[in-house]
Amino acid sequence: MSDAIVEALRIELGEIVRTDAEILQARRHDYWAASHLREWLDTAMESPRCVVQPTETAQVQALLRYATANRIAVVPFGLGSGVCGGVLTTHDVVLLDLSTMNQTREIDGHNLLATFEAGKNGMEAEEEVAALGLTIGHWPQSIAVSSVGGWISTRASGQFSTAYGNIEDIVYSIEAVLPNGDLVQLGKAPRAAAGPDLRHVLMGAEGTMGVVTGVTLSLRKAPETRAYSAFYANSMPQGIEAQRRIMHADWRPPVMRQYDSIEVKRNFPDHAQPDKALLFMVHEGPAARVAVEIADTARIASEAGLTPAASAVAEEWMGKRNHVVAWKDFFERGVVVDTIEISAPWSKIDAIYSDAVASLRSRDGVVNASAHSSHAYRSGVNYYFSFAAVCAPEAMEEMYFDCWDRVMQATIKHGGGVAHHHGAGRLRKPYLVNDLGENGVALLRSLKAAVDPSGIMNPGNLIPDV
User: Global pTM?
Assistant: First the structure.
């Protein structure tokens, strides 16, 4: 991209076009471990040619009109918390930094709706509605470092999703700018049968179909009470079966998490028992319902062969649940790590767990292969795999992608879905054919071509290569 184009953008948009080195370097990539590894290894990484920091939707429209007319690539950036490589820049792109669009437009307690600009920090949004006795109910681990627009763009899931749903269950409407600069408002009622739900063109699109500029979320009243329960299982399949029975009994504890014995030792050493998995739940809502839910889920757990554990483990988790690792700390110790979330029907999840962990452990250098579940549904559950491997710095990237591939292949082999809630980005796009099929991938490409015929929106991300 030439200096002339940057100057033309400045004439068009003014001082919101930034080229100072510090901001260019800070916006080169998101929180993807591989990007941070390359940065730590001092691998050549390109910065965007310029950063645009809008404060209103009209400026986003002006940028995209100019970009489409001049075929300039635009990469949207929220708060940079993505972990699958959704943001990766070159000198030929404009980085659209939405963190400067961070205002609250309205909180409507009567209709339980809150409207924010896309760059609004998630924790700040939750704190604002909490001051009115309300909650969004969306608690990703990254809540303090992610944006509400990012939640939409990655089809995010929160830690309380078993009761409150994922972001697609919470979003009411989406304001977005299409690649040609047109503004759309998608969603205007609690439910609609007005053709296909076009909100889903933007949800999970990771900046490839346009730019989310505003979000209206459906709120809840803050729960009356909160309580905890926990149980030991003799194996992960035994605990998973208990979860299945709880879900099929139509109980919805907002948090239902199960850790294998390795993860119990690492995360909750005071509660570890030899070879025991640990299932715990957070129950909240009306006090009467919570009491009944605790009693009946305990009965179901007992019938499935689980034994009681100290509920304090769930309270302990609540206190430290949003800690985010610093990749550099691991790299400097000669360790490459990551987590990988997948999901599958109840009948297939056990085989995925067994094969994925076995495959990781068979790789020389892998010192940890473990998993926990964190999101349950009527028809299945997710797993969150963790790996850690020791190797020389020059071998870390190959090790990283091989460990990922082992989990992806085990998931594919047994009929699971390769992406549960972190999105696809550049990391998972080679595997999307598993979830979409060849014709589904072709449909996705066709949709991209129709919405963004100039191909300016976040090129190289999400859409599988031809």
Answer: 0.96
